[in-house]
Write a structure and sequence with these properties.
Order of helices and strands: EEHHH
Number of strands: 2
Largest sheet: 2 strands, antiparallel
CATH architecture: Orthogonal Bundle
Helix content: 25-40%
Structural class: mainly alpha
Number of helices: 3
Radius of gyration: 15 Å
Strand order of the largest sheet: 1-2
CATH topology: Arc Repressor Mutant, subunit A
Number of domains: 1
């Protein structure tokens, strides 16, 4: 998926959400865990099927997916 080797999206897995290696572990779950202060080691202990590279690529994918330009309508610009 767009150069990401460990991130998959399959319609019959988690409703097509971006997941790690076809598992039922979504990118959004990993991002949420990191955002709420869990270390990579804590995440790996909680989800033993994950690898450190999975977490790193999930974060890179999230950064890529949210790299967007916000277009403000000219009528709102003062």
């Amino acid at each position: 998926m767009f150069g990401f080797q460990r991130i998959t999206s399959t319609p019959n897995i988690m409703g097509g959400k971006a997941c790690v290696r076809g598992m039922r572990i979504s990118v959004s779950l990993i991002v949420n865990l990191v955002a709420n202060g869990m270390s990579f080691e804590e995440i790996l202990a909680e989800y033993p099927d994950l690898e450190r590279e999975d977490i790193q690529e999930a974060l890179r994918y999230a950064a890529w997916a949210t790299d967007e330009t916000v277009h403000v309508p000219t009528s709102l610009v003062a």
